[in-house]
């Protein structure tokens, strides 16, 4: 199936889902969330799919929701249809929930910034591998928002309650080495080694 904001490739039992808005650091729109949910949700019925790898194209993993697009739509006077606000909010949760519930092992190959909803997407994966250029932020508090997309549920279970609250309260950006130190990621590798490392792990898992 062809998608607008993501690419999905499958080979030898490995499904590679690439967020594909590199000019926006892979910031996601409402359509992006729906595409992710649909692509991941279909894996449960795909007997040939053994492992899911999630990454981003270009310099970023995912910088979160495309707030600029939402602001532009509002400035243009576009009004959401009745009932669509709750549907859109639900679509963001469903994307991360689909990854958490995916019956196949999931790996996040974090190639750059993972902020807001992008952080939640990588938290939803079973294994997280980061390049040395990766950065992580639970940025919501700096936007006068509360942590969303499952972050407040997932982050404490990965790094512990105290560190999770610190990250969510401050919204500070942390680098790959700090992410490794607190257990947010399991490996940090050179940028050029990220995809080979993630795919090699996926191959080992796929072979059982």
From TrEMBL:
Alphabetized InterPro entries for the sequence: ClpP/crotonase-like_dom_sf, Enoyl-CoA_hyd/isom_CS, Enoyl-CoA_hydra/iso
User: Transmembrane segments in this chain: where?
Assistant: none
Q: Which GO terms describe its molecular function?
A: catalytic activity
User: To which protein family does this belong?
Assistant: Belongs to the enoyl-CoA hydratase/isomerase family.
The protein's name = Enoyl-CoA hydratase
Q: Which organism is it from?
A: marine sediment metagenome
